[in-house]
Amino acid sequence: MEFLTAFWSGLEPTLSITRLSAIWLFPLSLPICFWAAWSDMRAMRIPNYSVLALALIFVLIGPFLMPLPEFGARLVQLVVVLLVGIILNAGGLVGAGDAKFSAAAAPYIALGDLRFVLALFAATLLGAFTTHRLARRSPLRKLAPDWESWTRQRDFPMGLALGGALSIYLGLGIVYGS
């Protein structure tokens, strides 16, 4: 039994995000992530107010959770992701709301966790896509029959995956953060 305990404890991930940051940022960002996901499924739009609220929370709380040089670097992440998102949007690869939400979410992610977050996002995207496509073909669709995302055959409400991935990351940061 000790072997299993030692083996399992060696598998526990340690994230670069601090527990303190995750404890504060998770409950403040969760309703916004839910709002973005719900709005994107309902109208295929992520409201600008949700993006601004997500960014504002980080700007107001971040300086109290991390050293100022790290806080500044995280704001640079926002700018870089926004620029990449603008380019991808101009190329028709992502929606404008998706690009803006990604940029507002970028400073929440510790740079040392980038590979983990990309894998987490991929898994969340697969789960969200599968769940959305199954739900629109099931009786669950009757709960929200007027949602725009049900009728768009080629489009997917990426806010569902983006908000979900950020929330899961911050939740895991509470448990596995440094």
UniProtKB/TrEMBL annotation:
Domain Prepilin type IV endopeptidase peptidase: 31-130
Record field: transmembrane: 20-38, 50-68, 75-96, 116-135, 156-176
GO molecular function: aspartic-type endopeptidase activity
Domain of life according to the entry: Bacteria
InterPro entries per the UniProt record, alphabetical: Prepilin_IV_endopep_pep
Any one cellular-component term (Gene Ontology): membrane
Key words, A-Z: Membrane, Transmembrane, Transmembrane helix
Name used for this protein in its record: Prepilin peptidase CpaA
Native source organism of the sequence: Thalassovita taeanensis
